[in-house]
Design a protein that fits this description.
alpha/beta, Rossmann fold, 2 domains, six-stranded mixed beta sheet, 9 helices, 11 strands, elongated
Length: about 220
């Protein structure tokens, strides 16, 4: 069985999924999230794009801010988190924010809000610039104190990444070791490949549950 590094802020539920398959888990968070406390854009949106479940954590009163605007969510976890704060997504995509943005059509594009990270992926940032999307950055990614020391002490067969920012933090410390990478989504996988990782694996559907089954043959 493999020894797997989890780099997201919270180990669960991914850690239990790996342990359930007999793998050993090492948790070294490479990204932590903090509130920006940025005010919402003026007016009301015609549509809202949400790509992370963290939005519900930082803006529990989002429903009051967006009114009846349709919400386009990326991933089942994001959709579930939105439902927990009283928002029923109009659309739930299974790939990424760029694909979800392309689904917003017609009059709904008049005043689209993106509610999420201060540092979205480069691809999503370009797409939002082209579509003139209003951004409401409600959280930012930061590197936790002491992460580099913990990372240097870890010895693993595979590493999981759920964001490009985590990949950059990893490579800044360890370079590109010969380990298997399990990436959440095609955009994260592309970032890992661009950094030089050779064995990059992507679950067939967007979600943490599928990541644990991608370690076959490792270790």
């Amino acid at each position: 069985m493999a020894r797997v590094l989890i780099t997201r802020e919270f180990a669960e539920p991914l850690a239990s999924a790996f342990r359930g398959l007999g793998h050993e888990v090492v948790h070294v968070p490479l990204v932590s999230l903090s509130a920006t406390r940025e005010p919402a854009p003026e007016g009301r949106p015609s549509a809202v794009l949400v790509t992370s479940q963290a939005v519900a954590r930082f803006v529990p009163g989002l429903a009051d801010c967006i009114g009846s605007a349709p919400v386009f969510a990326v991933g089942k976890a994001t959709a579930e988190s939105l439902r927990s704060i009283g928002i029923k997504p109009h659309y739930v995509g299974g790939t990424d924010g760029v694909a979800a943005l392309s689904v917003i059509d017609g009059a709904a594009k008049d005043s689209v809000w993106y509610v999420g990270a201060a540092q979205p992926s480069e691809q999503l940032e370009r797409a939002m610039d082209e579509a003139k999307v209003s951004r409401w950055s409600v959280y930012r990614n930061e590197r936790p104190a002491g992460y580099a020391t913990q990372l240097r002490c870890s010895r693993v067969d595979a590493v999981t990444f759920t964001s490009a920012s985590a990949i950059r933090a990893y490579v800044d410390v360890l370079g590109v070791p010969n380990v298997a990478v399990i990436a959440l989504g095609e955009r994260t996988a592309e970032a890992a490949t661009a950094c030089g990782f050779g064995d990059v694996r992507v679950p067939p559907t967007l979600g943490l549950a599928g990541m644990a089954h991608m370690v076959d043959g490792v270790g």
